[in-house]
Write a structure and sequence with these properties.
2 copies of one chain form a homodimer. The first copy, chain A, is α/β, with parallel strands linked by helices. The first copy, chain A, folds into 2 domains: about 150 residues, Medium-chain alcohol dehydrogenases, catalytic domain (Quinone Oxidoreductase, Chain A, domain 1, Alpha-Beta Complex), CATH 3.90.180.10; about 150 residues, Rossmann fold (3-Layer(aba) Sandwich), CATH 3.40.50.720. Chain A is about 25% helix and about 25% strand. Chain A has 10 helices and 15 strands. In chain A, strands 3, 4, 5, 6, 7, 14 and 15 form a 7-stranded mixed beta sheet that branches. A 6-stranded parallel beta sheet of chain A has the order 10-9-8-11-12-13, sandwiched between helices. The longest helix of chain A is centred in the middle third of the chain and has 13 residues. Chain A is globular and about 65 Å long. At the A-B interface, α8 and β13 of A face α8 and β13 of B. β13 of chain A pairs antiparallel with β13 of chain B, so a sheet runs across the interface. Chains A, B: GO terms for molecular function: oxidoreductase activity, acting on the CH-CH group of donors, NAD or NADP as acceptor. Chains A, B: Pfam families: ADH_N_2, ADH_zinc_N. Chains A, B: InterPro entries: ADH-like_C, ADH_N_2, ER, GroES-like_sf, MDR_fam, NAD(P)-bd_dom_sf. Chains A, B: This is Enoyl reductase (ER) domain-containing protein.
Amino acid sequence: MTTTREIHLAARPVGWPTANDFALVQRDLPPLAAGQVLVRNQYMSVDPYMRGRMNDAKSYTPAFPLGEPLVGGAVGEVVESTVDGLAAGDLVLHGLGWREHAIVDGGGVTKLDSVTGVSPSRYLGALGMPGLTAHVGLLDIAAFQPGDTVFVSGAAGAVGALVGQIARLRGAKRVIGSAGSAGKVAYLTDRLGFDAAFNYRDGDVHGQLAAAAPDGIDVYFDNVGGDHLEAAIGRLNVGGRVALCGAISMYNASEPQPGPNNLALAVGKRLSLRGFIVSDHFDRLPEVVAEVGGWLRDGELVADETVVDGLDNAVDAFLGMLRGTNTGKMIVRL
Amino acid sequence: MTTTREIHLAARPVGWPTANDFALVQRDLPPLAAGQVLVRNQYMSVDPYMRGRMNDAKSYTPAFPLGEPLVGGAVGEVVESTVDGLAAGDLVLHGLGWREHAIVDGGGVTKLDSVTGVSPSRYLGALGMPGLTAHVGLLDIAAFQPGDTVFVSGAAGAVGALVGQIARLRGAKRVIGSAGSAGKVAYLTDRLGFDAAFNYRDGDVHGQLAAAAPDGIDVYFDNVGGDHLEAAIGRLNVGGRVALCGAISMYNASEPQPGPNNLALAVGKRLSLRGFIVSDHFDRLPEVVAEVGGWLRDGELVADETVVDGLDNAVDAFLGMLRGTNTGKMIVRL
């Protein structure tokens, strides 16, 4: 019998979570049933949406149960299989992260056809959920067209960095990002090829956006809400489009946050604001792997990772990601 | 030389307008130039959007100039014409209301093919801009589908009354309206065939909407903004759609109004909110005249009017419309 370790949700965080809300638990692995695979996880993902699922609020994705292991994207190697078409040594993507070993039903596993020269961790980032979120949000939800000026908040994060680069590679007129430090701002312009960027912690988001977008913006990809959304509404051109992708600030808010005080501008400017959830769009993932994988291989797109080692450090990685200590995708290597 | 009378914007209203912001002016009509028609106006429209155009704020429709006649929809009879295809006696629709006679360029005039048995004033209401606004907002902007539950605010107004009835006639599961008096609420359910209605002046818009829509709503047609929009966002089902049509409360606001404090729900519920301006959609008017005209003739759709007589009373009609003294379309007969 193999023992393994996993991280449980010990308490529902109120506001910003702390280490006390989690527990590292050791347990024995049960024997494999028919139709299951045992996976040794190599990489697991920590993502902003996980914070939302720690709340008990009525939502359209179920809350994580207390006292049970958390879930999330993971990539690993099959150790044992009772599923046809999956054998020991196969590299797979599945939804049971936050643990060193996972026993997964065959239907919950995607066998990865590696993109040559790309780390398996990419399937948790540029070639996985963050890549799909950026692609669908920009192209479908915000209906991006070549020639658009695009603004993305949280632009140094896993999703934001891809939104800006996909926009650039698909012919945006101008790509603008906001982030939370001078270092990240330099990273956006110097390494990711953004045309302009600003540090929202310097204040006056409206003024900084106006300076960065003298001719207005056509698309706003919202990872932040709050004053960013209000500034974007003020700056959007006629026919402008907003993809509402969720916001760390909202997940951690204990009270309702005031909405944008200029939403009435949406009438005269014919704006559209659309919320979306990436899990509605998993059928589009192969398209993203093909397009973004090609750009990655050719060096046209940068997908940096902040890698933290060991399940013991997974909670710190998650908390750090919420605070913005990562640049690009935050990954835990197990 | 014929003298005529017209109403000028004398001052820019601050907040709610008063009679002092307008002036009734008598003047001589100049001789007709080539390519013009002289029209004796029979009916003119007073509409909420006109309040917006009295502000000097930067907008996407130009502000009404001070010291000049107001403009707006009007129907009248051609008295004299130098335009091919338009002759004395023709009934025409044009954009120079707020005056007893109008001299209009030929290109600004639409000759009306009357729908038999329907008053010409209909072309300012159900068969005109309000009808087009209701049709486009419900069907295109909010992407109404048979089986949807629809909520419309300002439901006893010219646009709202049509939104609810078009939804009913096109197969809504349930139609809910809000209005500003007990009499209007009874009017919505008893005369217009709404399934439920409530008086927002009784307070607790969230609670009243929840009671009227136990299974949630799929479409919200927003004529009001503020707490109605917030309540609608709270009550919208997954995939819900909002048509943002402008709001009297917004036009008269001197300060920015707080936005809905629950806009973050748009992410998980995959909501879309879209603003629109009817003038982008004038090409759809013949379709509206055909469909709504048919329903009107067959008695399936009610389009009541509140008719005020005489240009001397046009300002009062406009101010009354802003306060909600009308039921259905407010019309001035000249």
